[in-house]
Amino acid sequence: MLGSLLGGLFRLAPEVLKFLDRKNERLHELKMFEQQCQLEQLRGAQKLQEIGAEHGMAVDKGVLDALGDAVRQQSEMVQAAGKGWVASLSASVRPVVTYWVLAIWSFAHLWFAWMSYRTGMEPTEVFKQMMSADFAALVAGTINYWFLDRTLKQRGLA
Q1: Helix pair angle (2-81, 85-118), 10° resolution
Q2: What is the largest CA-CA distance in the chain?
Q3: For 1-51, what is each residue's pLDDT tens digit?
Q4: Distance (Å, rounded) from C-alpha 17 to C-alpha 116?
Q5: Which of 65, 78, 109, 124 shows the smallest number of beta carbons within 10 Å?
Q6: Beta-carbon count within 10 A of 64 CB
Q7: How confident is the model at residue 130 (pLDDT cuts 50, 70, 90)?
Q8: Distance (Å, rounded) from C-alpha 10 to C-alpha 13?
Q9: What does the pLDDT average to over 43-63?
Q10: Spatial contact of 98 and 86, defined as CB atoms under 8 Å apart
Q11: What are residue 157's phi and psi, to 5 degrees?
């Protein structure tokens, strides 16, 4: 009888071990699946960033192409006008408008700074208020137009 009981226990022991092993195997598979899902989420986020970067490059290229076309059209228009006062007037339009816009914008900024300072605002706060994204874009656009365009032309890139 003891032999039968021991035989039954030894016969049952492998089945219990198989059950425990399957449980551990399922937990391992679940953990691997969760890690695989996280990896796919990271890959998806990276792909979206790549798409955004490609879109940004395409937009920048379009902006540079448009700027180059505008400069080319103006130079063709000046050449077509010949060598007279019309050509001189046409060639002076962009510089004069640039000076005018920068002068008005600078005057407005200086007036704002002076009035803010007179009301007791800290100079650092006044400076932060003056250096807005719009002002930075205006200055950067002007510098890009007048200096970067010439550099690109000299290198044959515009």
Answers
A1: 130
A2: 125
A3: 777 777 777 777 777 778 777 877 888 888 999 999 999 999 999 999 999
A4: 80
A5: 124
A6: 16
A7: confident
A8: 5
A9: 86
A10: no
A11: -100, -10
Q: What's CA 41's distance to the chain center, in Å?
A: 21
d(CA 117, CA 125): 9
Would you say 145 and 63 are in contact if contact means Cβ atoms under 8 Å apart?
Answer: no
pTM of structure: 0.39
Token pair, residue 135, equals 């002002």
Residue corresponding to tokens 């700074």: 113
Sequence ranges of the domains in the chain: 1-81, 82-158
The amino acid that residue 95 corresponds to is P
Greatest mean pLDDT among 32-41, 51-60, 105-114 lies in 32-41
- Tell me the angle at which helices 85-118 and 123-130 cross, rounded to the nearest 10 degrees: 150
Average pLDDT over residues 67-76: 75
